[in-house]
User: What shape does this take?
Amino acid sequence: MLHIPAGEFLMGSNDYAEEKPQHRRVHLDAYWIYKYPVTVAQYRKFCGSTRREMPEEPKWGWREDHPVVNVSWDDAKAYADWAGVALPTEAQWEKAARGTDGRTFPWGNVWDPSKCNNDVGDKGPKRTTVVGNYPDGTSPYGVLDMAGNVGEWCGDWYDAGYYDAPRRNPTGPPSGKARVLRGGSWLNDNPSVFRCAHRCHYDPGNRLAYSGFRCALSRPDSS
Assistant: This one.
């Protein structure tokens, strides 16, 4: 896990309705976040410990060092509970992806298809890849695969915008019908989807070959 220090960052954008309004001062307490998405090997250990069945195998087969896929939000939450951590809030996910300078992508402001697993121009691998396979796409905090590979479930319920969101440690609405997925995936062919501010929302029961998750842990900053 990597440490994300307490402080403010720029969240959202003014380009799309569901990302508005852009927050110029969102403060998060310090937290930790997984450097990579949860892998097949990690999820398999969870299933063995809890006598839970593995998800449906993707067409490329299970590869232990790839991110696990075909997991619902509830599956991801169950793993996090077992591991003693949590799914990141949208705000935690976005700060870990873009840092404090409001950059568009984890690596900067210019789209570069070589820095993440994507299918822009129909040139992608058409499947997941080993976690951390694109080190040039690392975020300012050293977090990998925040763009591409798999979309990642966040802990929040989806809201259509940030109009009523608090400025400190926002967690989304108290209830809803859809959960948030962030980061884009190997399947996506539109560069816009890989922006740090981009948001998708799905029924929490959906299990998709392009969705996975990573975990976070909130605790006081010792610095």
Q: What stands out?
A: The first strand starts at residue 2 and ends at 4.
